[in-house]
Amino acid sequence: MVIKQKHIYWLSTIILFGTLIATGILYFVYHDTLSIYFKHYGYPTYIIYPLAVAKIVGAMVILYNKNKLLKELAYIGFFFNFILAFFAHYMINEFDPFPSISLLLLLISYFTGKKIRP
């Protein structure tokens, strides 16, 4: 049973945080295109670069798994990020499954990680 939970933890964690590192890098590469989307969702464009850095650093903190406090802060930061992304899409009547799927993977990663590590 523990081995199965460990696999679920690592699968959800690597998929989610690998994707977040990749999207964080893409925020730097496609800043102009993302500016259009951020304006459409009602967010200021000056948060694109800080959000990219936060995604990359937060994902690395969770994957590196050395500081428990920083790891908890990264998880809660991503939780709020996905909630805000979901409602940004919802408020303009546009469905995007990525925030919902990301939130689900985040919750799976967090709670299975709590079970396999005391």
What is the overall number of helices? 5
Computed over alpha carbons, the radius of gyration is: 15 Å
Instruction: Give me the strand/helix succession.
Output: HHHHH
Molecular shape:
globular
Q: Assign a percent range to the helix content.
A: over 70%
How large is the share of residues in beta strands? under 5%
Mean pLDDT: 93
How far the N terminus sits from the C terminus, by CA atoms, comes to 16 Å
Number of strands: 0
Uncertain residue ranges: none
Could you describe the 3D structure shown?
The protein is an all-alpha fold and 118 residues long. The chain has one domain. The chain contains 5 helices and no strands. Helix 4 (68-91) runs antiparallel to helix 5 (97-116). 19% of the residues are buried.
Could you give a short description of this structure?
With 118 residues, the chain is mostly helical. The protein has helices at residues 2-29, 31-41, 48-64, 68-91, 97-116.
